[in-house]
Amino acid sequence: MRMRRKKNLEGRLAACGDKIIYMDREDRSFNAIDRSNTIDLEKLFGRRSEIQMEIGCGKGQFICELAQRFPEMDFLAVEKSSNVIVEACEKAIELGIDNLYFLRGGAEYLECYIPSGSISRLYLNFSCPYPKKSYASHRLTHQRFLEIYSRILVSGAELHQKTDNSGLFEFSIEQLSRFGCVIKNVSLDLHNSGFEGNIVTEYERKFSEQGLPIYRLEAVFENNG
Q1: For residue range 150-165, what is the model confidence (pLDDT) as tens digits?
Q2: In terms of pTM, does the model score above 0.85?
């Protein structure tokens, strides 16, 4: 079911100012790489630092807490829905978080906006599983997305994934392994694994309270860069 457009959405987005960067493209071809809109990340953040990214940030609980924990680093949060990203951005502004910017748009266009070899870590938290086989290419760990990630990541960078969906988790392990990533720190029940430093997302809390196990992995992109 489509989310109802939030009241005064345009005004709220405008109030976020330049904290939201819009990945808008006239050409919707997945394979068309136009680097004319590449972001100068050093200029954006006003410094040269390690940059991490969450794809599908939702209402921003995870990325805001992460940015607060590591003020010496900078962060980018990607979200397709204006309805959702506006809440995440408002949260960051309310908390006074300066080392975080938001990208509104699909992950398929990241390579047009993010310089090659600039991201040190990617987070995929509770991405849509797209359970139908015919929609497999929409999953954020499909080979076509891994190709994009490999070009914007620094050599040896990691992808961290959390999900409640066992089917998506198995699919991700298969795709990442086929791509040549080294998979480590796999957990089939994160909250009972003793893992330290976990930031609980909105969906994670909901699923955990329902008694569902949380799956987690880390994957190293060794051959990129």
Answers
A1: 999 999 999 999 999 9
A2: yes
Distance CA 66, CA 157 (A): 17
> Is 23 a member of any domain?
no
The enclosing domain of 125 has a CATH number of 3.40.50.150
Which residue in the block uniquely carries the two structure tokens 């790489």?
A: 33
Please list, residue by residue across 177-213, b when 16 or more beta carbons sit within 10 angstroms of its beta carbon and e when fewer do: eebebeeeeebeebbeeeeeeeebbebbeebeeeeeb
Residue-range definition of the domain harbouring residue 151: 38-220
194 domain residue, yes or no: yes
Per-residue confidence (pLDDT) for residue 34, from 0 to 100: 74
Evaluate whether residue 88 is within a structural domain.
yes
Residue 9 in any domain: the answer is no
Q: How many CB atoms lie within 10 A of CB 99?
A: 19
Distance of alpha carbon 183 from alpha carbon 89, whole angstroms: 32
pLDDT in tens, 97-145: 999 999 999 999 999 999 999 999 999 999 999 999 999 999 999 999 9
